[in-house]
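User: Structure please.
Assistant: Input sequence and predicted structure:
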Amino acid sequence: MGRIEILKGPSSSMYGAGLGGTIQLIPNKGEFNKVAIKGGYTLGSFGLQKYLLQANLGNQTNSANIIYSNTHSDGYRENNELDRKIMTIATNHFLNDKNQLTFIGNYIDLKAFIPSSLNENDYINNPTKAAFIWEKARGYEDYKKGLFGLSWQHDYNAKTKQITSVFTSFLDSYEPRPFNILKEKTNAIGLRTRILSDTKLFDKFLQWTIGGEIFSDKNAYQTYKNLYKDFPSEEGSVQGYILSDFKENRTYFNLFLDSKYEISTKTIFSFGLNFNYTVYKLNDNLTSNNTDFSGDYNFGSILSPKLGLTHQVSSNIMVYGTISHGFSPPTLEETLLPDGLINTSIKPESGWNYEIGSRGKIFYNKLFFDLALYRMNVENLLVARRTASDEFIGINAGKTQYNGMELTLNYDIIKSKKIKIVHSNSIVYNDFKFKEFIEKNNDYSGNQLTGVPKFTFFSQLNFESNIGFYAFISYNYVGEMPMRDDNSIYSDKYQLINTKIGYKSSENKKFQFDLFVGVNNVFDEKYASMLLINAGSFGNKAPRYYYPGEPINYYSGIILKYTF
């Protein structure tokens, strides 16, 4: 990755106006006029081994970044082995003064065994074990997937340009689970274009972007009887007769507008609009069961506006306020019932977000702060319901209210030519509640939202020196969170400390190296890295809520780089 940008909440109209926000992964497309190769090796606990090869190829008008990585881990738990190979190519090409092409290709080959979740007794006393049925079935996921995109930028003049992208992706997956075996193939293709311009309106600067995108994916999936119980073997799962055979076409269409208008030299007004239309079509290819689940379904058109105001209080401090609407359509799995029928009662999440905040630098520009206070009212929140042994469907949860505070503080303790020490902190307070949620005879209204801690805190101290030594130590606190919608059971709070030290040579040399060692979970804290909320209890067995996190573990590595 070249960098990662996070747009929190439905703050952007250009990327689908998702309620949770947007994460942009911007690839490193290589450096121009530079040719270099890099290799790395990491060795760690639980059989971790990772190999990395990277090449930068660049001249005056073309650059390319090519990366191959190979990761193996035996895993902390039983039935937890992982093998992953990744190949990524990102390139940039200046055709002339007005035209530029960018290409990215990513291919992943992964096989990961699944230990699944544990009940409380096993989580406390035997966290390395796998869930009994997943271990007997030797459940795993084996897939190959790829993503490819080509983007063309054309500059009409110094103030107006157009960016058009075509992209495609594929997935070929095989996943034996205790209750069935899933085969899945997905192929997707899409087109996105936008025009960006700077102009003037009433002698004030106006920046605007207008565009649209359409993409469609075809998903073919079959489930088969898992015969591991009838035909026990060391290999675990055995594929039996077919249970279902579906093909689903999903089409998404977005139109968007985003603009910024300079009311004064210190105040900017922003306005955005997103229009979405999503449609699903399901074909049932299994006719032997005399039931045809084929059908069409769409969520209708959704219009999501955004309004914002930003004011520069001083040269180093700004304040802002936004009102925005967002939505999140259900995933494929959430649109289907266990028998494969489209769930026509499912609705997309939608809501309004109200946010005020401030960011800037104080104390002689040594302390950077970013404060956000928000309230988001959501209708039809999608929550998971367990219907059988490890099978889930999505249901809507009425109305939910999110009240929150996020504060980031980064302080430059020392910033000189010889030494740099930076202290970074992130504090988050979440007051998320079901406002109206009645399911059958259960009223969860007023309860805390399941699976979300009220308080989290992250702090990290970074050290760098001009002679090559560097280090960091981080502290992460996660508060307790409800594991059921009725708030009858809470997880334990936990805190983790990670650290890393290393030594690297000067970046000005042709041959460079980086040696490092690290320790995760320094004080061997017992914690659940993930929770299975609303876990059911079947056959008089205790519900399995917990995915055990790794205990103290170590890693070390070396990276070598040569620039020609």
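The chain has two helices and 31 strands.
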